[in-house]
Amino acid sequence: MNKVKIGIVGLGRLGKRHAYNLANLVPGAELIAACSPIRAECEWAGTELGVPELYASFDEMLEQASLDAVWIASSSTYHAQQALAALERGLHVFVEKPMGVTLEECAEIERAVQAHSNQVFLVGFVRRFDPSYRYAKDLIEAGKIGTPFLVRSQTCDLDEYAEFQLEFVKTGGGIFLDMNVHDIDLARWFIGSEIAEVHSVGGSFVHQGFATLGDADNTVCLATFKNGAIAVLSASRTAFHGHDTHTEIVGTKGILKIGTTPRKNRVEIFDSAGARTDCVRDFYERFEEGFITEAREFVACIREGRKPEIRPQDGTAATRVGMAMTESFRKGTVVKLQI
């Protein structure tokens, strides 16, 4: 098969990374178009990556560019409508998480993917492509820790990004949909069951602006699964040491711990201040290999005519739980999910 011609929409903090990968690090991919309403971002794609076709409008890109696939890395509120428009045009679709910010959007996407069964559709749950998380999943499936019954997982961003997040939270779905969506997906993936009940607590302990938006800068959720397993999922916008994502899976015969210390590398520093290690600064540095593997899998699925492991139903489930976690936090009550 010839190279897969891809157009990307969204060239922000993460979108630029995706665009670089597609242009330089994904065999079989050709990034021929980029779209952003911000002129400087489009100019960056043209100058730095040599993308030949630049658009301010997503609809114009769909109409004018000769695409095989679209890569959606725009603001969360646009994910569903852009994915639906691309599917209707017969294009393969990668969409960043969350797949949709309402269950109605997610249901529409599920129906559209079913109606266009020859097209590849992939939701960006990047941690499933991280070598350490993939290895943990393989160990679980091999029975190395027995039956998993507890997942503890957290996502913590650097405090210096909090001011940016204050603006993003207005359209991003809030801390649970924006940050914990990965932890939700991992918990479901490792436990192999659906979350049936959630109880979320939290607050704006460092940045009071989040409280005025009905959101928080630090949260914890206790989730119960349909099969009786449990998960503790936390998120923070106020980590001062680095991007701190880690997960623990407890089974009847053992425990797996992934990334407990967010090490930048294997160097340990010993000096007059004591012993320490440098930490990764952001989510992309931590999951750089996962992002590249994710993109390669999307293109490989298209070229080989196969479907990804991640289904649109996984995107719907993550949104459903994230919305329930938000409702629990705002109402101060336990929320039972309809599953």
Automatic annotation (TrEMBL):
Domain GFO/IDH/MocA-like oxidoreductase, residue spans: 133-256
Cellular component terms (Gene Ontology): cytoplasm
InterPro entries: Gfo/Idh/MocA-like_OxRdtase_N, GFO_IDH_MocA-like_dom, NAD(P)-bd_dom_sf
Domain Gfo/Idh/MocA-like oxidoreductase N-terminal residues, every copy: 4-121
GO molecular function, one term: oxidoreductase activity
SUPFAM superfamilies xrefs: Glyceraldehyde-3-phosphate dehydrogenase-like, C-terminal domain, NAD(P)-binding Rossmann-fold domains
A GO biological-process term: NADPH regeneration
Pfam families listed in its UniProt record: GFO_IDH_MocA, GFO_IDH_MocA_C3
Keywords per UniProt: Oxidoreductase
Family: Belongs to the Gfo/Idh/MocA family.
Protein name per its UniProtKB record: Oxidoreductase, NAD-binding domain protein
Organism: uncultured spirochete
